[in-house]
Design goal:
Order of helices and strands: EEHEEHHH
Shape: flat
Strand order of the largest sheet: 1-2
Structural class: alpha+beta
Distance between the termini: 9 Å
Helix content: 25-40%
Oligomer: single chain
Amino acid sequence: TSPYPTTIAGQIALPRTAATFSTAINLAGLPAIIVPAPVVLGALPVGLQLIGAPDTEGLLLDLAEQFERASPWCQIAPMAAAAA
C-alpha cells in the first residue's frame, strides 16, 4: 500500500503534487507547514497550511502540534481505512 492516495477524483496524485502550491511561499522566504485537517466522512482529505512571518518557525511548529492534538488526523482519517 502507498502512504498517500495514488489517484484523487480519477486524477493521478504524486507525493510532490502539493509542492506546486507552496512555490510563492518559498520564494517569499516565509516559514510554512501543512497539517492534515478534519474531514467529513466520505469527503476527500484536506490540509491546513499555516504561514508565518520571517523567523517564526518555532511558533508554527507549536501551532501545528496544538492543532494535531486537538484534531489527531490518524483518528479522524486513518490511512489504513482510506487504502481499503
